[in-house]
Predict the structure.
Amino acid sequence: MVTTDELRRLALELPEAEEHAHWDKLSYRVRGKIFAVEQPDGVTALLKMSLEEREISVSAAPDVFKVPEKYAKLAYVFVRLDRIERDELRALLAGAWMQVAPKSLVKRFVG
């Protein structure tokens, strides 16, 4: 189980990650691009994810991952923080960050 405080800490550990308000929610961005959004319920986060990875995740763990109807064609997924381990969330956040970060920054991060 992960708390929103841990989500925040893990997101902000990523290079150049920043916290910004987004429709009365906290979003996490790199160079202005959103990779995660904390939801008001305190137990869900919206994460950037490839459509392929999203399909695999939702199929494997539908109690953890859900596709929001309004994001059906966009590469985002809801993640239940109360049903995921910290290390898995850390990896998902890094993947979400890599989806939107400039390639040069990603190269330095993984290099």
Notes: The longest helix spans residues 86-100. The mean pLDDT is 96. The chain has one domain: 4-103.
